Amino acid sequence: MTLLVxxxxxxxxxxxILALKIRRTGVAMTxxxxxxxxxxxxxxxxxxxxxxxxxxxxxxxxxxxSECTPIAHSKGLCSEAERAISQRLPIPVAYIVVDHSxxxxxxxxxxxxxxxxxxxxxxxxxxxxxxxxxxxxRLFRTYGKTYDKSQHNKLLAEFADPEKIRKRSPRxxxxxxxxxxx
Length: 182
What we know:
Number of strands: 4
Radius of gyration: 16 Å
Distance between the termini: 17 Å
Structural class: alpha/beta
């Protein structure tokens, strides 16, 4: 059966690549605009529209950034939406909180970052905290490059090793387990 992963528009490509690295088959992706991820009516309509066009899925995984909000608070907000949607759909729906943004996950693999910037990067300087995209922008600048989210996130995801990210991010570990990787 197919797992449907819903991401925010801007992280669609990177999350698709990571999801397919973890679970090679049976993953479908769709996207929702950032401001609608907690709007359970909107998410439910989106899921129903997907089902009517593409057929059955076994479960749905909604990936939402914490955006500098404490993870526990983000999880609480997501739990409310998850409960509301799950009560009205015949398939399980789960939310995964992403560490601030997908860049937080991508930064967990120093080798991938090194590949993309073209020079060795000290992994200890890639601590995941609020605004990881800003941190990547500054890092790229130190190597004489301009960081472009859509282009570089996709490249970082292509070079990333999910096992390295799992070791540094409990939220990515949850994502892996939800995708179907133990």
